């Protein structure tokens, strides 16, 4: 492949699994990956929205399917990847995007609140990565994994979201560990670390941390990001254009982490 080959050219035809693909960043990313010629498998708990997202992609002439999956269930995660392999024979890329918020001061959280954040954002991420790493390590040409973490997994600034922050720090650590353990098998593992992005989660954060209003004061650009801006970075991380990038958490944040 020549050095001038673009990101979209180098991912065409590859199979990508997108967890949490029924809404927000996941849904936008599935559409971006499909536009680039990737074969997209959308996984999510919400069957109606997930099937709708896959249908939208197919209506534009691209390839997509939906598999219902709760990433907190080892059996459902195994079933997801078994179905992907049954249909396509391989998994080239994975965007581990499923996540939940975790609002509340640490002293006020219940064990159930704390466990919920880690069940999805950390343990669920690991369950998916475990299957992806096993499959990709056995493939001659490896694969590429991108985890959706957060700027909160790199820099802690807001009180009142301790469980979420802790789970995202752990997600970044898992990313780096997996990259180190599987680099020689041709598997790259990176993360995107979004700042504020137009989404249901941002809107829901208004009460806890001030939402978009607070973020605009903290972002050098003063702008709230879009799901597509995150998706474009994930696509680049899948591509040959980023072939020497591994174990990184790339901020997609309008310059926030630079402040």
Automatic annotation (TrEMBL):
Care to name a GO molecular-function term for this sequence? oxidoreductase activity
What is this protein's name? 2,5-dichloro-2,5-cyclohexadiene-1,4-diol dehydrogenase
Q: Does the keyword Secreted apply?
A: no
EC number(s) stated in the UniProt entry for this protein: 1.1.1.-
Signal peptide bounds: none
Cite the InterPro entries for this sequence: KR_dom, NAD(P)-bd_dom_sf, Sc_DH/Rdtase_CS, SDR_fam
Which Gene3D superfamilies has this protein been placed in?
Answer: NAD(P)-binding Rossmann-like Domain (3.40.50.720)
Residues covered by the Ketoreductase domain: 14-200
SMART domains in alphabetical order: PKS_KR
One Pfam family, short name: adh_short_C2
Keywords, in A-Z order: Oxidoreductase
**What family name appears in the similarity comment?**
Belongs to the short-chain dehydrogenases/reductases (SDR) family.
Domain of life of the native organism: Bacteria
Q: Does the keyword Manganese apply?
A: no
């Amino acid at each position: 492949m020549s050095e001038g080959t673009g990101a979209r050219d180098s991912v065409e035809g590859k199979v990508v699994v997108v967890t949490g693909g029924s809404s927000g960043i996941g849904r936008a990313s599935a559409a971006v990956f499909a536009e680039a010629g990737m074969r997209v498998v959308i996984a999510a708990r919400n069957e109606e929205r997930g099937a709708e997202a896959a249908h939208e992609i197919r209506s534009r002439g691209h390839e997509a399917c939906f598999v219902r999956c709760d990433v907190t269930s080892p059996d459902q995660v195994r079933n997801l990847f078994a179905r992907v392999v049954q249909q396509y024979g391989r998994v080239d890329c994975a965007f581990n995007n499923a996540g939940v918020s975790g609002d509340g001061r640490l002293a006020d959280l219940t064990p159930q609140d704390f466990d919920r954040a880690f069940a999805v954002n950390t343990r669920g991420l690991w369950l998916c990565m475990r299957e992806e790493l096993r499959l990709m390590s056995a493939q001659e040409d490896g694969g590429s994994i991108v985890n959706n973490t957060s700027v909160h997994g790199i820099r802690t600034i807001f009180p009142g979201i301790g469980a979420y922050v802790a789970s995202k720090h752990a997600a970044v650590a898992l990313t780096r560990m997996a990259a180190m353990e599987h680099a020689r098998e041709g598997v790259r593992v990176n993360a995107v670390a979004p700042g504020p992005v137009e989404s249901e989660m941002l809107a829901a954060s208004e009460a806890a941390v001030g939402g978009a209003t607070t973020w605009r004061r903290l972002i050098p650009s003063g702008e709230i990001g879009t799901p597509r801006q995150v998706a474009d970075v994930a696509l680049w991380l899948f591509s040959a254009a980023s072939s020497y990038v591994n174990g990184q958490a790339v901020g997609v944040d309008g310059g926030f982490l630079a402040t």
